[in-house]
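Hey all, quick one. A colleague (J.T.) asked me to put the 5-O-phosphono-beta-D-ribofuranosylamine job into the tracker so the inputs and the structure tokens live in one place instead of scattered across chat threads. No bug as far as I know, just bookkeeping. Sequence used:
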Amino acid sequence: MRKLRLGVMISGSGTNLQALIDACAAADYPAQIQVVISNRPDVRGLDRAAQADLTAITIDHKDFDDKESFEDAVHQCLSDHDVELVCLAGFMRLLTSTFVNRWRDRLINIHPSLLPSYKGLHTHARALEDGVRFHGCTIHYVRPEMDNGPIIMQAAIPIATDETEESLIAKTLTYEHKMYPAAVKLIAEGKVRASGNKVAFKDTDMGDEGIISPLP
Ligand code: GRF
């Protein structure tokens, strides 16, 4: 079967990368990882890639004079590996609009909040601080503004009364790991496409169950 060729960009532990690696191991999964790029050397995600016999390349941003030359190297590497879809998975550098526009509608990100709420860092702590009943995570096409772009998939996660930042991070990650392979599958199957500032879905079960927390 035809497989969508992925490039996965990481900066750290790579648990979302692992979820994609595990999904791609199935013969009937419609995508494969061509290359893993880390902007930091010696991170756990690179071990995961090596373990899975993937091509893993460190492009350390500190080795470059400026952001443009760093991103040119990343772009070249992705192109050299025939990447069709770039998955940011815990990649912690902001990308310039030049890079983002080069990969427009072929570049997705996972963010640990229900966007457009809680862009940026420390999302779990900020949600707890605000006392919102739901936290969550979002997969979206990337646009030049940080944590912005057409939303592909979201999980809403109720916050428990005894929730801590650590427990909420862990709980959110379990949903991230379910969603990333599922969202990539939708893209590979041609069921989603960016349309203006939204995503248009085709033959996709959107679900219709609302969640109330606390339960009435
Ligand atoms: C995840 O929470 C992801 O949403 C955010 O960074 C974290 C990366 O975790 N962008 P990992 O490296 O995939 O374990």
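Adding what we noticed when we looked at it: The two ends are 47 Å apart (CA to CA). The longest helix spans residues 165-188.
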